[in-house]
Specification:
The protein is mostly helical and 287 residues long. It has two domains: 33 residues, no CATH class; 236 residues, Orthogonal Bundle (MetI-like fold), CATH 1.10.3720.10. Helix 4 packs parallel to helix 9, helix 4 packs across helix 11 and helix 7 packs across helix 9. The mean pLDDT is 86. The protein is built from 14 helices and no strands. The radius of gyration is 24 Å and the shape is globular.
């Protein structure tokens, strides 16, 4: 009787609401292939119709290289700014109580819900020469709209929620007893943050950085209005791809897309490896 009860308990533990492993895995692979792998494969296949010399010429022209530098450079700066300021926003939302907290918490998600074109028009209206903010900057020699600085502003705007929403749950689950223990042992605030808090939230910060960077490299709608789209100055790579498509240069567009894909994948892979290393290091230190 006891053996039968143990067998029933074992079966109940192994029981799953979803179908078996093979069926679930098959559906997963089919869905990923349909949504991700096949479209990406089409980009590579279209690019393979070009000769090697034609590919090199398409992806290394001065105008294309300038768009790479702006797109990836602005994305990197925007994601870095969001790691710093987004971390502060997440900290304030988790650790403090104040009037209007729920409203501010909801505003963080606004770049998610706001159409990108609306965001671009709003940012341009604010930072243009006669805008509410831009008219105070231009007398100081700081021009935001229609410059690379405007691209950074737009990419920072759309990337903020990724960092905040990634770090916020980690801070909520963090054990405050460890901070209190560190303080009781004589650690000051800076030491407590560096030795206790920062190692805990570092993987989340890296994840938020990766998500914000990935979103920024492919952003189009919110950037084209404030960038001004001047060749060699404020022209982003996604816009250049659209220009190629409008000229019916499909192979050239896919060639540039392949370069962006490979660079983005390399960047994300590096960040994921760094994130795994920090988690492993944190586990070793805790043991």
């Amino acid at each position: 009787m006891a053996v039968a009860i143990q067998q029933l308990k074992g079966k109940s533990r192994n029981a799953s609401v979803l179908p078996g492993f093979r069926l679930s895995l098959g559906f997963t692979l089919f869905y990923l292939a349909l949504i991700v792998l096949i479209p990406l494969s089409a980009v590579f296949l279209k690019t393979f119709t070009m000769t090697w010399d034609g590919f090199i010429a398409a992806v290394t022209s001065d105008r294309v290289v300038a768009s790479y530098k702006l797109t990836f450079g602005a994305s990197l700066i925007g994601a870095t700014l969001n790691v710093f300021f987004g971390g502060i926003v997440a900290w304030v939302l988790v650790r403090y109580r104040f009037p209007g907290k729920k409203i501010i918490d909801a505003l963080v998600d606004l770049p998610f819900a706001l159409p990108t074109a609306v965001a671009g028009i709003a940012l341009t209206a604010l930072y243009s020469g006669n805008g509410w903010i831009g008219r105070h900057f231009e007398p100081l020699g700081i021009k935001v709209a229609f410059t690379p600085l405007g691209v950074i502003v737009a990419l920072t705007f759309i990337g903020l929620p990724f960092v905040v929403r990634t770090v916020q749950p980690v801070l909520e689950e963090a054990e405050r007893e460890l901070e209190e223990a560190a303080a009781s042992l004589g650690a000051n605030r800076l030491q407590t943050f560096a030795k206790v808090i920062f190692p805990t939230i570092l993987p989340a910060l890296l994840t938020g950085f990766a998500l914000a960077f990935a979103r920024a490299t492919g952003e189009y709608g919110s950037v084209i209005f404030i960038a001004g789209n001047m060749p060699m100055i404020s022209e982003i790579t996604p816009l250049f791809i659209i220009t190629k498509l409008e000229q019916y240069d499909y192979a050239g567009a896919t060639a540039i897309a392949v370069v962006m894909l490979l660079l983005s994948f390399t960047m994300l892979l590096t960040i994921n490896l760094l994130q795994a290393w920090t988690r492993k290091r944190g586990q070793v230190e805790r043991t």
